[in-house]
């Protein structure tokens, strides 16, 4: 931790879309997300005593104090309060203040509105207290807030990319050691493509049961593999052969979930190679493979999402489509030639409306800066 210079006026953190590497980030695997040009902004103002959190999106106003040990309430404000608690737990003396949050990251869509609230709040509180953290510590603090106080058992992907992303790049993160590589999105044929995010409007939440159950299943399978092969640290370095060797010791569900994760890590490596080579068709194939694995093995898709993926793949200029984020609703990520994004979006929306009678929101995204790059740009002004 170090003492900061002049505080910035606003602390903005983006949402994210994961290109590939789903449910691999809590068993030591690989993920390949990018930040999107939608953000949460935290503004901090002095107060006489205690802390107050308000939001442009929610009516609830939350007041708390440094010695408040009450449990989470289940409201939106648990996210910033969880962050406050983790900042205080570091021994940082945060002066009394009000934090107001606003922004345009779609909520409950699997685009990390939670992580964008956490990271923007953490930056606001830390800067207000004259402190700062390096990117890994900042992301880990926000993950702890979500895991411990909010009670959502998320991995590290969202908080990390929201913190550390760089414009024009996807971020290949090794979740075991948090080493990462920035992969340019403008290489070869990829320069002619955009990421189109389609929101099924089926609400997604990491805090609810399904995510927790999947995580437990993976931990069971990982435990069985590690018992048989003690040199293996986690699913991130397990092989299908090792999984087959313990197949008789785990349930069929556990077997399928682990199969998804092991094959998904291979697909992320393949996708990263495709990106380095600027090979849009190969990246698209990896994305489709990922979706099928989620649908059939991890089983975290829903009919609306499968419909969006199947439809997208019939449309001109689409190289790949998949469920993105925590699953059980939320969004699809589509790799689409930029020249086709207008017609693609229109046709996808029309087909969805016809089939489900509701409008899918579509966001055409380029890879945006993470919170630290935004802060740096802000402070340079
Ligand atoms: C949610 C979690 C992440 C990750 C994804 C699935 O977004 O917050 O940590 O596990 O689901 O890949």
Please provide a written account of the structure.
Helix 2 (113-128) crosses helix 4 (157-164). The relative contact order is 0.18. The chain contains eleven helices and 13 strands. The strands form three sheets. Strands 2, 3, 4, 5, 6, 8 and 9 form a seven-stranded mixed sheet that branches. It has a four-stranded antiparallel sheet with strand order 11-12-10-13. A two-stranded antiparallel sheet has the order 1-7. It has two domains: 9-182, Ribosomal Protein S5, domain 2 (2-Layer Sandwich); 186-365, Alpha-Beta Plaits (2-Layer Sandwich), CATH 3.30.70. With 381 residues, it is of the alpha+beta class. The longest helix has 26 residues, at 252-277. Helices cover 42% and strands 22% of the residues. Strand 11 (318-324) and strand 12 form a beta hairpin. The protein has helices at residues 78-89, 113-128, 135-150, 157-164, 209-228, 240-245, 252-277, 280-298, 303-312, 341-356, 371-380; strands at 2-3, 11-20, 30-46, 51-55, 62-64, 97-103, 131-132, 169-174, 179-184, 193-199, 318-324, 331-337, 361-365. The chain binds alpha-D-galactopyranose.
Strand content bin? 15-25%
Mean pLDDT across every amino acid position? 96
Q: And the CATH topology of the largest domain?
A: Alpha-Beta Plaits
Number of separate structural domains: 2
Q: What small molecules accompany the polymer chains?
A: alpha-D-galactopyranose
Structural class: alpha+beta
Overall 3D shape: globular
Note the main sheet.
7 strands, mixed
Reading off the top of the CATH hierarchy, the class of the largest domain is best stated as Alpha Beta
Instruction: Kindly provide the radius of gyration, computed on alpha-carbon positions and rounded to a whole number of angstroms.
Output: 21 Å
What's the SSE pattern? EEEEEHEHEHHEEEHHHHHEEHEH
The CATH architecture of the largest domain is 2-Layer Sandwich
* Beta-strand segment tally: 13
Spans where pLDDT lies below 50 across 5 or more residues: 2-8
Q: What's the end-to-end separation, in Å?
A: 24 Å
- Counted by DSSP, the helix tally is 11
CATH-level-4 superfamily name of the largest domain: GHMP kinase, C-terminal domain
- The amount of helix comes to 40-55%
